[in-house]
Every structure is written in C-alpha cells, then in structure tokens.
Specification:
The complex is a heterodimer of chains A (1098) and B (486). Chain A has 1098 residues and is mainly beta. Helices cover 6% and strands 46% of the residues of chain A. Chain A has 10 helices and 60 strands. Chain B folds into 3 domains: 244 residues, Serine Threonine Protein Phosphatase 5, Tetratricopeptide repeat (Alpha Horseshoe); 72 residues, no CATH class; 74 residues, no CATH class. Helices cover 53% and strands 3% of the residues of chain B. In chain B, α6 runs antiparallel to α7 and α18 runs antiparallel to α19. The longest helix of chain B has 24 residues. The chains are: A mainly beta (1098), B mainly alpha (486).
C-alpha cells in the first residue's frame, strides 16, 4: 500500500466553520466563536484494507454493545478521570474506560470486575446492584516503568505502548531552580534537547531537539500548552536588545509536566510543525484538597556575573604610548582613541576624564568594567488555590515577579493569572476551560549588540584601562550629561543605560475550551478551540546628545500575534477480544495565524527629552507588516495492541496550507511504529532484568512555508513627494511544494533490579528534503536571494537516558539520572543543480556560519592564515602574517554531544538536588576576543608588549617609521629611539625560513585581529547548572497553624564552570535564537543566580 | 445505546451533505489562495516609481562610502581618513566592495529591467531608452572598478542564478552599442516619462547624457582600442548632442533626511574623514579658488589655514594630528541636498580636449582644456572672469600640448573632486596626477588599480568567478585592467 495515494484510501471530509477575524481579546476568552457544524466520515472503496477494516470493527462493536450493563467511573485519588483503564469481568468480556473515566460493561450481580491500568495497582470490585454506578479509585503503583506519558494531541498513553521515545519532566524536576526563561529549565535534563542561553540575564534562549533539521527555517520545537499550540517567536531579534522568546512569559509554577516528543516519529500527528519536535506542557489542575487548597511559593534570588573577560592592567588609553585628555574627542593627545595602546599606567600625572584638565595619577582600575555591573535581584511570588470534587476541579494561580538585572537600570516585571478547570456537566459530557493571562512589563531591557548609543559591551571592549568607573557614574548622576571618557563614539555608559532605553510591554492571553462527550462505550468525541493572542509594544528611546545620534531618536514598535486552533476528534477504544485491543482516532484541525507589526520612528528628535512621534525633525519612518495564514488538517491514528505487550501504531495526516501555491497546497504524510515488551513476550523477567522493550518506527511529516513567498515584491519609500519602488531583491517562487522530513527511529528500554535502574536508548536517522530555502545567489543575477525548493539535510543520532535509584530507604532516598545525546548532521545538497556550496545562516564581519554541502550543519567559515605545505603560517617581508584569500572551514557550532547529570537525594526532611550540564565539541567564533585584541584591552595582548612580557628591543633606522624595525641591543646605532615591545610573529617566510622580522606588538595584535581563525575556539563547557538544598518543615509544627506543608530551599543556578576552553566569554552564547549560532560578538556576560525558595501549603 | 457512526452514515441527507462537502473543499482552496495575497508590498509595480527607485539606488551606491569616499576618493587622495585609517592604507578585502556591487546589480539594474519591460508593454520607448542609458552608466561604473564582470548574462535569474563574466573589452563595446540603442529609442517628442529624479523627464538631456557617456567610454578605451575610440568620438561629436552647459550635467540631487546625501548622512554621526593633504597642497600651490569650497577651516579657530591629512597614516599617527586641527571636506559636499554628480559639463570638455589632443577630432585641445577648467569653476559658483583668467594664465595651469596627459590629468583630477570613481579611472588611464603611495600602506609602495570582487562570488558564482580570475589575473588590488595600459 503506497501512502502517497492515501487520499484514495480514505477521505475524511469535514467542514468546520471558524472565524475570529478582528480578534476581540475579551470576547474570545472562552472562544465561543467556533462550532463544529458537521463531522462526517466518508470511505472511498479502494485500497481501503486497513483503515476501513478498523472502522468496520469499531462500528460493529458499537452496534453489538450489550445489555444488561454496569456503569461506573474510574479515577485517581485526586479525582482525575482515568481513560483506557482495562475493565474485565473475571472469566468474561473486557472493555476500556473512556476519556472521562466512564465505562459500561455487561455484568450481572455477583460478578467480579478487575481494573488494571499501567502505573496503577490493580483493583477488583464486585457488582452488587446494576443500577448503582460503580466509583472506582485506582492508586498509583510504586514502580516507575509502568509510566503513563502525555503524547501527541495531549493523549495520555502507557509508555510501553509507544514505538518512539518520549521523555517527561514533572514539575518538581522542572523547577529545581526557577529561571526567567522557561526554556532554560529544560537544559541538561532530557537526552537530545539542546538549550542555548543567548546572553545576559533577561534575554532569549534557544531550544533544539535532535539537531537542526531545517536548513533555513525555524528549528525550535512546537510548544503546546493544554492542547493550544503557542508561539515562541523571538520578535525583533538582532536589534539593540536581546528580546526574550515569547515562551519565557510562562510561569513554571503553573506547570504540572512537560513532555518532550523528539521529532517526527512521536509528533507526526501535529503535522507541519512536528519536524523539530513538540513540547507538550500540561498546566496544573485542581486536586482533591487537603486543608484550604492554597499554595504559596516565593522564590528570591540574587544574580551576579558568571564570566567577564580578563583585562590587562598595565597600559592605559591612547595610541603609540601617548595620551592626554582634553575633551575625549580629539582635542587632546589621542583622547579620541578608544583603545588601550597608550602609556603604561605607573602613576605618572596625566590629565584624565573628570580631572578638569588637571594632571592626575595615571593608574589602572582593574575592576572598572566589573564595577559597572550590579547585583541583580529576582523575586517571584506565586499563590494558587485549587480544589476538586465529584463534578469539578479547578486551580487558580497568580504570580507576581520582579527582576532587576545585573546591568544598571535593567528591569523586568512579570505577572500572570492562570485558571484551569474541569466540569462534569453530565455523566457523559465534560467541559474544560483554561485561561492564562500573562503580562511582561519591562521598563528597560539591557542593551546588547554593537549600537554605539546603547550597547553595554561595545565601549568596554574598546576601553581605556585607566578609566575610573566611579568618575563616570558620578559625572552622569551629578550632571545628567552624556560626557564620557571618550566622546567621539559613545555616551557615558550610565547615560546609555538610563537614557537610551527600550521599554517593553507584552500582554498575552492563552485560553481554550474543550468539550468531551462519551457517545457510546469506547467512543468519545472531543472538541477544543484555543487561542494564543499577544500584543507586544516597545518604545525605543535614544536621548539628545548621544554620541553618534546627536539629536536622539524615538521609535515605537508594536506586534500583534494571534493563533487560533480549533479541533475535533473522535476516539474509539475497544478490547476486541482477550488478546487484542484497538484504539482509533480521527480528527480535524483548523489553524489560523495572523502576524502584525507596526513600526514608527522619528529618526531625529526636534526637541530633546520629549518622546513622541510628532517631535521629529525628519519625516517619520514607518513600516507595517500584516500576514496571515490558514491551515486545514485532517488526521487519524490507530493503535492495535496484543496482550498488552505488543503494539502497532499508525498515523496519517493531510494538510491544506494557504502559504503554498493553489495546485500544491495539499500534502499528506503517514507514520508507523511498533513496540514489543520482550520480557513479557518471552517471559524473560528476572531479578536483574525486570523489563525490556524494543521499539521502532518510521515517520514522515510535511511542512509549509511562510505566507507570501510566491510573487516578487517591491518596497515603497518616499523621496520628497515622490514615491520610490525598489525590488525586494528576493526572487520568489510560485511553484514551491511542501517540505518533507522523514525519520526512522529504533529504541530499547530496559529496567533492572525491579526498575531501580532504567536505561533508554534511541537511535534515529532523519532526512529533511525539498527544503524551502531563501538562498543567497550572486547579485549579478539581479537578486540577492532566490526561493528554492531544494536542499537536503541528514541528522543521525544516539540518545541514552539512564535512571538509577541506588538507595531507597524510608528515610534516605537517592536517585540520579544521566542523559547523553550525540547528533551528527550533514548537509547533503542545497540546490538540484549542485551549484550552491554554502547557505549563510549568519555572519559577523568575515566570519560566517553556513550550511555547507557535505559538512556538518552550522559550519563556521572565515579568514585564515596563509600557510605553507607543512602548515606553517606564512609571514610576509614586513613581518606580518599573511591571510589566505580563500575563506576556510574553521569548525562548526553544533556540539559533538551534550548531556546532563541530575542527582536527587532525600534524607528525612532534607533534600538535595543538583544538575551538571555538559556540551562537548563544537566551536564558537568570538568577535569580542578579536576586538579586544585590536583595542589592546585584553590580557591576551600582554605577551610582547614590554620587556617584562617578553617584548624584544628594536629601533627604526633613522627614527623613520617607514623603515622596517631592526632588532636592537641597548641602543640604536645612530642613537635611534629603542622600543621594548617587539614581537616576531611565529611562522615562515616565502623561502621557508623561520620569520626573523621584528614588529611592534600593537601592529601584530591589530593585524591578527582580522584573522578569524585566531578567534575560533572550542565551545565545550561543563556547567554546574542547578543546585537545590531543601528542608521540609516538620508537619507537627505546622498543623497547629493550619499549614499542610512548608519547605524552604537554597537554590543556585549557573553557579560555575567546571570546564570551558573559550577565553573571556561564555561559550554558551549567541546573538539570538535563530540559526546563526556559533558567533559571539560583544554579547553580554552571562550571570549566575543564588537565593532562597519558600513554599507553604494551607 | 444505539448512537453510532453506522446510524450516522445511514441518515437521510448524508449523501447531500457529503456532496456539499466536496464542493466545500474547492471553495476552501479558493479561500486559502485568497489569504495568501500579500497585503504589504507591491506585486505589480509601475515604471515611473521604479525609475525613481533605480536612480536613487544607483546614486547611493555611486556616491556612498563603499565605492566613493571610503575607497576611490582615498586612493586618489581627494579625502583622507583620520580615524580607522585601514581603507586609507589599502586594507580592503572581499567584503569591502560588496555593497556597491550588490546595490547596482540588484536594486538598480533589476529595477531598470522591470521598468524597461513595463515601458515596452506600454509602448513608451522613452522608458526603454532611459533604461539603456542608466544600464550603460551602471555597468561602466562596475567594469571601471572591477574589470571583467557579468554583463550579457547578468540579471537573468529566470534562466539561471549564475552569470558568466564578460571581458572588459566586450563590455565597453557592448555599452557603446547599448547607448546607440538608447538613442534610437529616446525621442523628446515621444511619450512622457514620470519619476525621473535626474532630468525631470527631459528626454533631450537624456540624449545629451547618452552621447556624453559614449564619449567617456570612448576615451576610457583610447589606449586599449584606439580605432573604436576614434570612430566613437567622431560619431558623438557629429551628433552635436552633448552635455554643453552646467545645467545639463547628469546629477542626482538629494533631499533632506532620510533622503539626504550619503556624505551628509555619514558626517551627521561620524568624524572620520578629512581632506587629503595632497589636494590641499596642490590647490594652495595653484592658488586655486576652489579650495574654500573643497575644504573647511579646522574647527580649532586658531588655525587660519586649510590643513589636509596625509593619506594612509596609521590610526594613531593620524589621530595625533588632532581632529580639531585638520580640515574636513567642504560643507558643500556634506550638505543634506548636495548633488551626486554623475557627469559634469567640465568632464565632457576635458574629454573633448583629450580627443582633440589624441587627434581623434579636429577641435582645439587647448581651448577646450581652458573651457573645462572654467566650467568646473562655474560649477562651484566661481564666475569672476578676472579670477578665472588669472588662474588659467599661471604657467603651472597652462595647457602643455607635449604632455597633454599631465595637463588634463592634473586639472581633471581637481575638477573631479568628490567623484572618486571617475577620478580613480582617469588617474589609472592618464597616469596623472602623480600621487605618492599611502604613508603606511599595507602593500609598501604599491597603489591599488582595481577593486576586489565580493568574496560571495567565490561561493555563489564559483565557476564564472574562477574563469574571470583566470582570464584577468589575480583577484587583488593590483591587477591592471584591460583599459589601463602602462
């Protein structure tokens, strides 16, 4: 059976009328604007074998439902309904409970019913009175292997029935320490998940599962919150602020679990966006309360810098060893030079910034950069109230968080209200409603990047090592003026931090309602409609008098993002006989997304200090973008189980996307996987091997593209009163087809010593092809980019997750987990003709990160030393290393492997957990190291800079600097001035002899600063990522005060590096969450945090 | 318990609903296609706005830092750098000139191409003619600077995203004939064109510019292909349609911010450029009245004379001259609405003088030379005849028939102040003025004679790039181009 012709097998046709045009935030809170009109199943009588058989089975079994029947419900101790519980009349028929935990089974009084469910202790009940519904509570079993996990579409399944790897993090493990960005909480905890913290303490974080599978597009997974796909874009990346990715808004305290579906095999049902994996987030729901059901948590942490470059403290500002300050703008001697190639700092008297022209001691300020940063503080306080009864359960949470960052005047506030509830309207009808209102409100975000007006690290990487930060602080706070140690390029750093600000306010609503209806025993209909809507407004201010932007500027940027998803599914569960069980699901989804951006800028203010768009001396620069897409989908899945130890799963999905051309907008993709618990099959269970499962599968997913990729466009600008149209430079493609990713996965799950030790191993091979790429083409073609439908990338990998509980005593419990993931990618080709070699993902100067054919994704290329056949650096006759005119392969950003080591110890009331996180291999290009050598601020420029640093003596014959320096001993032959900062660059001359030409150190460092090879470092690191020491207060104490439980914990995060190789920077850093990783330039230092967490339950 | 799918299927009306659904699928498709209509940008442009866009893009590339004041004006020692002096020391690489290359090939030439197509569809030949003239100018700028470049196969993405390089000889020949084609199309009595920011739609001036550009190209190749140069000169002079007054000059006049002159834009936030010591010294030596226009007095009010900065100092050496103690290029050039001069009247006169000197025409070389200098004075508002006469009568200014290359080279270089690319080409061709290499040049005494191709060509157009380098010579600053004999 060929899957490509699946459309001929079954066409499940439906029409759901859905619209939500001018998304009114409030009217859509519980999304009453969508309704199912018709759900209809239509079978075409051709190649119908498998699915029509399954449908037939389901129909007949419904028809043959028997009477008399006993009804009842099965739930957990908390009252949460359990679906899929196997209910069997001893010696008779069997059935499964519905999504609402309901069941109906033919049984007579006196019959014994057995209830079995993986992960729970088996229970029996005797039927006494048929008219009396049974209320069955199942208790969680002690073993960990019989786990139930959340899978695609939020469906809970026994882990043993899955043919792919799923890893789940429960709230406790997720929240060892809190972070300002939820994504960070996943770091090091799940095999195959790679998290990269962009920069600073308020910025974005990137997450990639199982390597990059898209050459050009988004590689981050899809996040689904209680069934609602939510946006995790980083809007405005690459600007003067590292805006956090949208997911950072979520409050980790609200989260019950995060389930990671690692790629197409697990996530095929999610369709287009599943190629990069899916993370399913379940928020907490009310539980049957003890006490008042009120829970309070307070997390308070301080933060400080984790890494700062190592600076030299011997030479001060200036050039040629000379410096004297007048106005910092060329009025004095080299006082516009923002480099540290000046005089030695030996206490000699030189006029300096803040000395009012007076000559004062010229001395180093070793901590001048460090003292600019302050200790940050974050407080996050959550309170929730929750309860559950027979007909309802709810949880209402509120969180209030404030963060003051390590950079002066950086501040971020977050508040959110979350509500999650379930109501049993009738025995058959269940309603769920969820709403999360999130506010992110930052009075000012830390300045990043290379903008002179607002960058934090720019002027510290170009710096005078003698500068006293206190004098800059005093100057700004006493006068409010931008006056600075250098006035040619930068405002006073405090002026920059306090005046050139970016304000952000994001209001977000994520909400959903769902209805579940038990149509018949085993047959459930489910409907859900959800929205994710947010409004993100930013105000970017640059003050009058800022060097480089003398008139200041004001810009307002607004984004409105909305995605609505409405879906309906039919789920059918049935024990066919005592051996076979069947589950079938069919459904449809409508997804619509709108993106709106509105940007207005007054490029030069008319009057300083007034930030309005009217206050402009130039015409406003406006841009606005509105884009919209819609995708209709139909999907289905079936699971056939045999004796509860062998399972076969198939899925299929068809999407119709508005982003593709009319004749290509429909695309279909299937998946199949299977698993066998071989310890059950072959009765292998022993004291050592307690559980063993082998699994495997194949999956395909299709993907569409962004809106408006079909036709060339021309952009408008206005010249006086004359409009200009200019080509966008991008050759669009009206013939594009959907992208395809296929993935094969094999795995082995083992449990030892009664599951005290578990081992999960996965192997996968993923191919992504027909990639929709905007490739750079030679501009001589008339365009800078062309949209191609080509390209193939392969990812292969191995994941190992080991869990061990070495000690399990009533008073002392120790478990640890180790995860390890290895991924190897190869870009197979970029275009069909094989002409393209590189696809540029990002660049910094001449260093580029590319997808290069035949190489690992994220190859770093750049300038390199010219070398001879033996690999020696060639030195030209002037003593300087030569640069190879051809850009060379310098490494790749993707690590060889990454992993984590998580430990959890409990002794009586004490708990200790910690996480060590490692990323080994891969490279990073550091622009900060390059610039810092050019400017002479780094300690790495000391070798050779003076006699005490190994500098050689030389002179210029005739004191003429046009002559090449000559080595000197003592004095020049004609009384020439002798310098002691000579370096002989390592390497050979054209003739192959060792280089002998002496050159000044400054010239050497300035020259090599343009050789990218010099600044590509091993990006490996091992971080002590998380630490939590907690104490559970004794219950006897508390109960008198009406407190159910309380705990206090000391927490720490990113505490220190156990290992790293890249000097002066944190190798876990990048510009943004995009694919341009492996490049660092002027990024903010990362921070560590430590503090106390308190939680009380009433 | 008889609710079932089966019953659903048997329900009356199911067939009707099913068929409605099949109809629904096709209307669904229509809806999806409609959603994907781009509301943000124009998919159907118009010729007039494209013309404006092309002219502005080309002017920005031509007059901006990349190709002009950040490179060719430094090499020809019109301006100098006082901070970040790397370009002044000839430290250029494969990314140095890519903006110039990219803007001309994409924003300018693609705009022109689409404009010409629309002009043809509308049967408005003047758009087509203007398109050819602009194309010729753009390609002339590119080949002057780089040598071999893609010309015939360029802008052909529908066929291939790759483009072979043509030899410089073929390009100049092609441009001359393309300008002939333009002249066949340009008709002052024909349909009007709109959106022309250079000549305001005056087709007669476009014809003058087309001929003047032919004259420029003819002399560019005078040493390499004298026969073609000569026949072109004769044809052009016969036409009597040349730029023959300052108000007929081809120039793009800028507006205020954000459409301000690229120099104004740069100077509004940066303080890197000074006038070159070479120019200041020459103008002082000649007592040239253009000096106060070309240079400002230093900001340090105690300094009462113009102080140029030597080209190619190290950053520290340049810095130590003092930012306030040296002269910036004249405010005339950094005004918001300063023009980007594409072809001045004085240049046409210098070209005619040289054509006469070479014997390509029977005109009076000495007289034209003097008229050229006068036109340059007039261009900057210096009209006092006594001043002009005094200047022209200096022995050091007087036309020297025995070394016309020196007379014309020296004076044309002064007249081309600001037009770095043209000055660069003419300095290479005429070998005058005699310039000293950068003080601390990266390559010792060598001076650049071409631009380096953007390094992206090595990756994105590999085969063609390699063939071009094989044909022309190493892709560095020192490979002489075809037109540059001696």
């Amino acid at each position: 059976m060929t899957f490509s012709s699946f459309e001929n097998v079954v066409i499940i046709c439906y029409s759901i009328y859905s619209y939500n045009k001018n998304n009114p935030l409030f009217s859509s809170i519980f999304i009453a604007n969508t309704s199912i009109q018709i759900i209809q199943i239509y079978i075409k009588m051709k190649h119908r074998y498998l699915l029509s058989l399954l449908l037939w089975l389901s129909i007949t079994s419904v028809l043959h439902a028997q009477t008399p029947a006993v009804k009842g419900t099965v739930h957990t101790e908390n009252g949460t309904p359990l679906s899929g519980v196997s209910i069997r009349v001893l010696g008779g028929k069997a059935t499964l409970s519905s999504n609402l935990g309901n069941f109906t089974i033919a049984a007579s009084p006196g019959d014994t019913l057995s209830f079995t469910y993986i992960g729970y202790e088996a229970t029996q009940a005797v039927v006494s009175d048929q008219s009396q519904p049974l209320d069955i509570t199942l208790h969680q079993a002690a073993t960990e292997l019989s786990e139930v996990v959340v899978t695609a579409l939020g469906i809970s399944k026994e882990k043993k029935s899955l043919g792919y790897a799923v890893q789940e993090l429960k709230s406790e493990q997720l929240n060892t320490t809190q972070t300002p960005n939820l994504v960070n909480n996943l770091s090091g905890k799940i095999a195959g998940v790679r998290v990269t913290n962009s920069q600073g303490d308020m910025g974005s974080s990137r997450i990639v599962i199982r390597g990059e599978t898209s050459i050009a597009g988004n590689n981050q997974p899809l996040f689904v919150l209680d069934g609602v796909p939510i946006d995790n874009s980083q809007l405005g990346a690459g600007g003067s602020r590292d805006y956090s990715n949208a997911l950072a808004d979520l409050n980790s305290e609200d989260i019950e679990s995060m389930s990671v579906l690692k790629g197409p095999n697990a996530a095929a049902l999610y369709g287009s966006r599943a190629a990069h994996g899916v993370i399913i987030i379940k928020t907490k729901l009310g539980k049957k309360r003890k006490g008042l059901g009120i829970y309070f948590n307070s997390n308070n942490t301080f933060s400080s810098l984790l890494s700062l470059p190592e600076y030299q403290n011997v030479f001060g500002q200036g050039g040629n060893g000379e410096f004297s300050y007048v106005d910092g703008n060329g009025g004095g001697l080299n006082d516009n030079v923002d480099e540290s190639w000046g005089p030695r700092m030996e206490g000699q008297l030189i006029p300096q910034f803040g000395s009012n022209g007076e000559a004062v001691p010229f001395v180093p300020h070793p901590d001048n950069v460090k003292s600019f940063f302050r200790t940050g503080f974050t407080t996050s306080n959550s309170i929730s109230v929750a309860d559950a009864g027979d007909k309802y359960s709810y949880r209402l949470g509120f969180n209030d968080g404030h963060q003051t960052g390590v950079i002066p005047n950086s501040k971020l506030n977050r508040r959110n209200i979350s509500f999650n509830s379930q109501f049993k309207i009738t025995d058959k009808l269940n309603l769920t409603a969820m709403a999360n209102y999130l506010i992110s409100d930052a009075p000012n975000l830390p300045g990043v990047g290379g903008k002179r007006a607002s960058s934090t690290m720019l002027q510290f990487t170009w710096f005078g090592r003698q500068v006293d930060m206190q004098s800059l602080k005093d100057s700004y706070f006493s006068t409010g003026s931008p006056d600075n140690w250098n006035n040619a390029y930068y405002p006073n750093p405090y002026f920059g931090a306090y005046e050139n600000t970016v304000e952000l306010r994001r209001d977000r609503l994520i909400g959903a309602i769902g209805l579940t209806y038990d149509i018949a025993p085993g047959l459930t209909a489910h409907f859900q409609s959800g929205t994710d809507y947010y409004n993100d407004r930013r105000k970017l201010k640059i003050a009058y008098g800022t060097s480089g932007t003398p008139f200041g500027s004001y810009e307002e940027v607004g984004y409105t993002i909305n995605e609505n998803n409405t879906e309906g599914t039919l789920n059918f569960d049935k024990h066919l006989n005592s051996d076979f069980s069947l589950n079938i699901l069919a459904g449809g989804n409508i997804r619509s997304k709108t993106y709106e951006e509105n940007d207005q800028k007054a490029p030069r203010l008319a009057i300083g200090g007034v930030y309005t768009l009217d206050n402009s001396r130039d015409p406003l620069i406006s841009t606005n973008v509105y884009s919209r897409l819609k995708v209709y989908s139909l999907y289905g899945s079936a699971q056939l189980g045999y004796k509860n130890y062998a399972f076969l799963n198939v899925t299929a999905r068809n999407d119709w996307s508005s982003t593709l051309p009319a004749n290509n907008l429909s695309y279909f993709y299937p998946s199949v996987n299977g698993t066998v618990v071989f310890t059950d099959l072959f009765h292998l269970k022993s004291n050592v091997l307690s559980y063993g499962k082998i699994r495997g599968g194949w999956a395909e997913v299709g993907a569409d593209t962004d809106p408006y990729q079909l036709y060339d466009t021309y952009g408008f600008t206005l010249f006086g009163s004359n409009p200009l149209l200019t080509t966008s430079g991008i050759k669009m493609n009206k013939k594009i087809k959907s992208e395809t990713t296929t993935s094969t996965e094999l795995g082995l799950d083992l449990g030892f010593f009664n599951s005290r030790a578990t081992l999960d191993i996965s192997l996968y091979n993923t191919n992504s092809f027909n990639q929709i790429l905007k490739v750079d083409i030679t501009p001589t073609s008339g365009y800078t980019q062309e949209l191609l439908n080509a390209g193939k990338i392969n990812n292969k990998g191995l994941e190992v997750a080991l869990g061990v509980t070495p000690i399990k005593q009533p008073d002392f419990n120790w478990n640890f987990s180790v995860n390890f993931a290895l991924n190897k990618s190869e870009v197979k080709y970029l275009d069909d003709a094989g002409e393209l070699e590189n696809y540029t993902l990002g660049s910094d100067g001449t260093a580029q990160v590319v997808a290069a054919v035949g190489k690992t994704y994220g190859t770093i290329i750049g300038t390199a030393y010219q070398r001879d056949a033996k690999g020696n650096i060639l030195i030209s006759s002037n003593g300087l290393p030569e640069t190879d005119p051809t850009l060379q392969d310098l490494g790749h950003f993707t690590p060889d492997w990454n992993g984590g080591f998580y430990n959890n110890l409990k002794y009586k009331n004490w708990g200790l957990s910690f996480l060590i996180d490692a990323s080994i291999g891969g490279s990073i290009y550091s622009g900060s190291n390059s610039t810092g050598q050019y400017t002479g601020v780094l300690a790495s420029t000391l070798p050779g800079r003076g006699a005490e640093f190994g500098g050689l003596n030389y002179y210029y014959p005739g004191n003429d600097k046009k002559n090449l320096p000559v080595a000197a001993s003592g004095s020049g032959p004609n009384g020439e001035k002798v310098y002691d900062d000579g370096i002989i660059a390592p390497g050979v001359t054209a003739s192959g002899d060792a280089n002998q030409q002496i050159i000044p150190a400054s010239l050497y460092y300035k020259t090599i600063s343009s050789v990218d090879e010099q600044y590509v470092y091993d990006a490996s690191y091992v971080k002590f990522r998380e630490l939590r020491l907690s104490y559970q207060l004794p219950g006897a104490w508390l109960s008198r005060m009406g407190i159910q439980g309380a705990s206090v914990a000391l927490v720490g995060r990113n505490l220190f590096f156990i290992y790293k190789k890249a000097p002066n920077i944190d190798p876990e850093t990048a510009f943004s969450t995009g694919n341009a990783q492996g490049l660092e330039d002027l990024t903010l230092p990362t921070s560590r945090s430590y503090g106390i967490n308190l939680s009380v339950q009433f | 318990m008889k609710y079932s799918i089966y019953k659903y299927l048997l329900r009356p009306g199911t067939l009707l609903v099913s068929s409605l659904l099949i109809l629904g699928v096709s209307s669904c498709k229509k809806e999806l296609v409609r959603i994907n209509k781009n509301p943000n940008a124009v998919e159907d442009p118009t010729a007039d706005y494209l013309l404006s866009g092309a002219e502005k893009s080309a002017a920005d590339a031509y007059w901006g830092a990349t190709a002009n004041f950040g490179s060719s004006q430094l090499i020809t020692q019109q301006w100098a750098l006082i901070q970040y002096t790397d370009p002044d020391r000839y430290i250029f690489d494969g990314s140095s000139f890519s903006d110039f290359w990219t803007t001309l090939y994409t924003s300018s030439l693609t705009n022109i191409k689409v404009m010409m197509q629309l002009g043809e569809e509308a049967e408005n030949n003047n758009y087509v003619g203007v398109g050819h003239v602009l194309r010729a100018w753009n390609f002339q700028l590119l080949t002057d600077a780089f040598g071999n470049i893609p010309y015939k196969q360029s802008g052909n993405v529908e066929q291939s995203s790759l483009a072979a390089y043509d030899s410089q000889q073929e390009i100049y020949e092609g441009l001359l004939s393309e300008l002939d084609t333009a002249l066949l199309q340009l008709d002052p009595g024909g349909a009007a064109i709109e959106g022309d920011l250079i000549y305001g739609g005056d087709i007669s001036n476009w014809r003058r510019f087309a001929h003047s550009l032919q004259l420029r190209i003819a002399l560019r190749i005078a040493d390499a292909a004298p026969a073609l140069a000569k026949s072109t000169v004769q044809k052009v002079l016969d036409s009597k349609e040349l730029i023959s007054a300052n108000d007929q000059a081809a120039q793009f006049i800028y507006d205020k911010s954000p459409n301000w002159n690229p120099v104004a834009n740069n100077f509004s936030t940066r303080n890197d450029y000074r006038i070159s010591k070479t120019v200041v010294d020459r103008l002082y030596a000649l007592d040239d009245p253009r000096l106060p226009i070309y240079a400002n007095l230093p900001e340090n009010k105690n300094i009462k004379k113009y102080v140029g900065v030597p080209n190619g100092l190290t950053t520290s050496d340049a810095n130590s001259l003092g930012l306030a103690n040296t002269s910036k290029p004249g405010s005339y050039f950094s005004a918001d609405n300063a023009p980007a001069v594409i072809q001045a009247y004085s240049e046409v006169l210098f070209l005619r003088a040289e054509a006469a000197a070479r014997g390509f025409s029977a005109e009076n070389a000495a007289a034209l030379y003097q008229q050229a200098i006068t036109a340059s004075f007039n261009q900057y508002g210096i009209t006092d005849e006594a001043v002009i006469a005094a200047y022209l009568n200096q022995p050091s200014v007087k036309y020297n028939a025995s070394n016309y290359k020196k007379s014309i080279g020296d004076q044309k270089w002064i007249a081309l102040f600001g037009e770095g690319l043209e000055a660069f080409a003419e300095w290479r061709r005429l070998d005058y003025p005699d310039l000293e290499p950068a003080v601390a040049g990266k390559y010792g005494d060598k001076m650049p004679v071409r631009f380096i191709y953007p390094s992206t060509e090595q990756t994105l157009n590999r085969k063609a790039y390699r063939a071009a380098v094989a044909a022309q010579g190493t892709d560095d600053l020192f490979t002489k181009l075809w037109f540059d004999k001696n």
